[in-house]
Structure formats: C-alpha cells, structure tokens
Amino acid sequence: MSTSRFNAVEKASNRKAVEAIVPHQKVSCYYGEHVFNRIAMKKYLSKETYQAITQSIDKGTPIDREIAHHVAAGMRMWALEKGATHYTHWFQPLTDGTAEKHDAFIEHDGSGGAIEEFSGKLLVQQEPDASSFPSGGLRNTFEARGYSAWDPSSPAFIVDDTLCIPTVFIAYTGEALDYKMPLIRSIEALGKAAKEVCDYFEEGVNNVIPYLGWEQEYFLVDEDLYAARPDLSLTDRTLLGHESAKNQQLDDHYFGAIPLRVQEFMKELEIECYKLGIPVKTRHNEVAPNQFELAPIYEECNLANDHNQLLMSVMKRVSSRHSFRVLLHEKPFMGVNGSGKHCNWSLGTDTGINLFSPGKDREDNLRFITFVVNTLMAVYRFNALLKASIASASNAHRLGANEAPPAIISSFLGKQISEILDRFENSAIEDAIVVDDKKRLALGFGQIPELLLDNTDRNRTSPFAFTGNRFEFRALGSSANCGSAMLALNAAMACQLQQFKKDVEALRSAGKSKEQAVFEVLKTYIKASKPVRFDGNGYSEAWKEEALRRGLDCESSVPLLYDAYLKPEVIRMFEETNVLKRKELEARNEVKWEVYIKKIQIEARVLGDLSLNHIIPVAIRYQSVLLKTMTELKIAFEEEEYSELSAEPRRLTRQIANHVSAVTRMVDEMVEARKQANRITNLRSKAIAYHDTVAPYLDSIRRHVDELELMVDNQMWPLPKYRELLFIR
Ligand code: ADP
Ligand code: MG
Q: For 31-178, which CATH superfamily applies?
C-alpha cells in the first residue's frame, strides 16, 4: 500500500499538462453547435412547426402530437448529421446528478437492414426503468410507474454520440419525482404572482421570469492521488488527513497564476461548455489550494439549472482527459475552505425590466422597493424552509464553519437600501409615495443612488445578500442541484407576492386608495421582516445568540432541518402555489432522510475500514520499529545512558498505543451505533440516530488518526498526505 502512495505522488508530480483540444475558430462560430437551439430548429423544421414550437416554448402552451412528431423528425435529422447514434431522456432524480438511459436510433427496416427512427412519441414520453430512483415510496404506494416527459423549454443537446432530451420525471399519478418538475411549477407560480404585483405599477407586463446565475466552486485532484485515497474515491471527501503545514494561510492561491495543467483543463472545459451553449464567463482560483470557480452569464432559472447539471457532468468527463478528478463535494479537505454554489437570483419582466434593479425613475424605485420588501418577507416567513432547501450531509460541513454562511438564513441589504427602507418606514404617505398625472405610483423621496451595481462592501458572511441588482443565495453546496433551493425560493416568493396582493386588496375593499394601501402594506412588511435583516458579521458567536432572540431558525441538525418542509404553513404555501402537494413533500422528505442515512453510513464504513486495515497496521509496524530500537539501545548502552536515550521512543510507543486503542475502541462503538440505528424503521428517526450517534465518531476517530499521522514514519504512511494532494504543480 505504501508503494502506491509514493507511486501516485511521483506520477502526479511528473505529469505534463495535456494540451486542450482547441477549435481554431472564434467562440461565436461554434457556440451552441451541440444544441438543438432556435438556429438549428429554423434549419431543420418547417416554418409552421418552427412557429408552433417556439410559441409553445414562449407561452408555455401544450404541444400537440402532430407538432411533436415534426419536431422529432427534425431533431433526429440534426442529431444524425452530428454523428449521434443514440438518444436519451435526460432527467434530474432526487439523488444529486442526472440520469439517463441510452437507446439506439436504429430499428429493423423490415428487409434485413436498419433504419434510424425517432418518433414524436419517443420524444414526448418515455418510461425509464426507474425502480431504482428514489421516490420516497410514491410509486410503491400508488403502484404507479414513473415516466419522463419532454421539457421543450430547455433545448435538446448532444453529448458524445447521444442526443439528450431534457425531461421531467413524474409518477403516473402525477407526482414529481425529480427537481425539474417542481422547479418549472415554481417558475410559473412566481411569474404569475409577480406579474399581478407589477400591474400596480405599470401596464404591459405579461410575464415575469426568475433568472439564475450560479457560481460553481470545485477542487481538482490528480487522478492517481485520488485513486490512492479510498475515502476520496468512495465518499468524495477525505475522511482522514492532517492539515498540511502550508495550506491557505498566505492567500497566495487566490491571486496566483493558474497552473498550466489546470489552465489546459479549464480551456477545454470552456470550449465544451460553449459547444453545449453554456455561457461560461468567469474562471478563477478560489481561496483554497486546488480550488477553482466557474460562473456563466445568468439565464432563465430552468435553463440555468440544466446547464449547471450538465456542467457538472462535462467537468467529470473533461477532467479525466487531463488526469484530474473533479471534487464537487462541499468539504473535501478539513481545515481548508469548502466549496459552495452561489445562486444569483433576480426577476425580470417580459418587457425587459429587472425588478431588483433600482431604476432611474421614481416609479421604478417604488416597484423596486416593493419587490425587495416582499423578498425579505418571503425569506423571513420561510426562513427554516430555505435553510432546509440547501441542507445535506455534505453541505453540513460547510455551514456555520466560519467560511461559509452560518446555519442561519438572514439577509444583507447594504447601507443604502437599509436606509431607504428605514426612511420609508418612518415617512408619512405624502412623503413616501407620489402619484403622477398618469395615476402611476412613484417613490416620494429622491433617487436611489446608482452606485449599487459595483457595490463593493458586499458582506461575504451573509447567506442571502443583495448585490446591486439581484439577491445572492450563498448557502448552497457545490454538489447540490440548484433546483432544490430555487424551487423553494420561487415558491416562497410567489406565495408572498400573492399575499401582498391580498393585503393590498383587503385595504382597498375597506375604502382605501391604491397608494394608501400599498404604502400601509409595505410599511407593515418592513417592520415585520426586520428580524431577517442583518448586515453584521454572520460568523460571530454574538450573531447566533442575537438570531435566536430574533426568532430565526437556528437548527443545525440536517435531519431535523428537513422537518421545515412539513410545517403546516409550508405545506399550505406549496399547495397554494401548486408547486408541491403534501403527498409529494412527504415522499421527498423520505428520500432526503434516506440519502442522509446512506451518506453517513458509507462514510462510517469507509472510515472503519481505513482505520482498521490501513492505519492501525502501519502504526503497529512503526511501534515495533521503535521497540526494536529500544532493544538495540539496551544492548549498546549502559543502563543510565540507555534510559535517557530510550525516553523518546518509549514516549512515542506509548502515545501510539494510546491512539491505536482509542481508534479501535471507537470503531467498535461506531459499528455498534450503526447497528442500533439500523434497527430503526422510521426513516426520520433513523436519520436522527445517524446524525446524533454515528456521525460524531467520524470526527473523533479522525482526530486520533490524524495525530498518528504526525507520529508515524512518513515513509510508512499509506495514504497520500494533504500536502501531496493539495498542490498541483
Ligand atoms: P462574484 O463572485 O463577485 O459574486 P461572479 O462574477 O463570480 O461574481 O458571479 C456573478 C454571477 O452573478 C454570475 O453568474 C452572473 O451571471 C450572475 N448575475 C449577474 N447579474 C445577474 C442578474 N441580474 N440576475 C441573476 N444573476 C446575475
Ligand atoms: Mg464569485
């Protein structure tokens, strides 16, 4: 085993950069060439079909059989010309990642040959053999099978030789078994509710669309080093490993030059992204060594999320050509910053207005304030839910660990916006709102300064920060499906905007003018949502106490966080917005608990195995080296000198023995804790047991092993150390 560590280290450090495959063309020449986008559709579809399909996409209207058939024919022709031989329905099951089952296009042609077939029926609906995808018991209970159905709003694309068709994944009884379906429903609900609120301010808005711009952080590790670490290979994180003497203290990685090997990887990754129509824009080093970030231009929420899912799989593919492994885990290395996935979220109208952008006119500014205040209310009312939406076994390592947002969801607005809200709250209506001659409502006082966009005093410790023309939800983990958080946020906002309208209308029915009603409701909301506004240091202990006093959700146990999905007000919110029904929420929680259990279970097993079969034998072997040394010392020296010279090896032997026995005992206890937990049938209780009684051993065993790493002869240590894993040359 020890040879494999040094082999791996040697291979990794001698590795030369692999040149990226670069098309010698401008990006605009090949951008989207693997996507059945509007340009391709125009070319491969008849004028009538093209019109019908684009209209359905824009308006969300159903597509009839005939049209689907024509689209499939065009799509097939396009895909075959691009060299595709297979097709698949691409979907996003409740485990992270995407799923697909590839079928070849070929069919018998009836005369001994083959013909490529792809009908409208195959495009529109398929039945993946999905019994192994988690459904939280939905399919068992209702004896319904799952099927995948085409989402025409996200264009089909080709990866390698396969045409991939973005689909939703649903049970025959209609329940969503994926992230995409409820995400689409939440986008619809929010679009409608936001449009109605826009109507208070101006005419002509027909739809509002949520936008998403994600920022994906990740680590790269050499593939041989990865293979020499069973914990990385099996759990995507290191369960053992003492901090390197040098890691991120100097911040030199953040501003440093990107190593050549990584540059070539990034170059190729970006080219692949462009071919797939993923508009990646920025790349840079992150704080930790070997950590990097990639961010695209923002897009409509559903498409942006598909692109993030696709990016994660493209990353894996491209990295292997460069002999890297991409780690998407939130916390691959202890003592080194973890990886998140910031979600920049904004709302845009079909008339081109960003509702979170303070405008030049006073009308725009009152609408802006209305949307900001409603967002605060949504974050306040659905505080625990938003946290649950980003919670996972792997993200738990990041949250509250002084590097990522704390396990409390608050919102940072910055000085200007805070002052404007305070001023609004303390103004009389004559000062706060004016009505112009066209009866349009406008903000009564001054301009909102325009410097917001490059507002640099952005508070990095805030999980939900206003950043000039959008909110940045920063609590997501790097491996997550953004859909989880986005559907919760969209639905919460939709529900809040519906409430705003109800509240305004209630006052109007009681005889108040529109401006009076809007004014009063906003004022009430500004007051009510105050607990969620926090511009201070989110990492401080004082904030935890303060947040508790303010009544914000401070729970940090992942299995308990999921309870937020089943609170009566949350179920009501999801049902009223038609995003998820109680039955679906219950089933999805079962899946979440189960995934949590499995993750901890696997980590516990791997750590047990590593400790007992990799580490302890080596520690004992080193112990016997020490014992042998002592015997030899005894032969060579007189009693007095011997006892002096043998003091150190004796001390080390004792320490090693202590750690070895602690590890052995704790591994036994951990196995016992798992056995106990496995007897529990209720998934929620079982997940709690795993969290409370199994997971703590992962840390305590590790502490002892990491101490051993410092004592045992470096030459004997079987696993690549942090300093070897973390610095790509
Ligand atoms: P930073 O790291 O400083 O937050 P980045 O440039 O890395 O900034 O990322 C900014 C992200 O915000 C990008 O994904 C970008 O597309 C996105 N973004 C910019 N404007 C908007 C907007 N109006 N709505 C949604 N996302 C946006
Ligand atoms: Mg960034």
A: Glutamine synthetase, N-terminal domain (3.10.20.70)
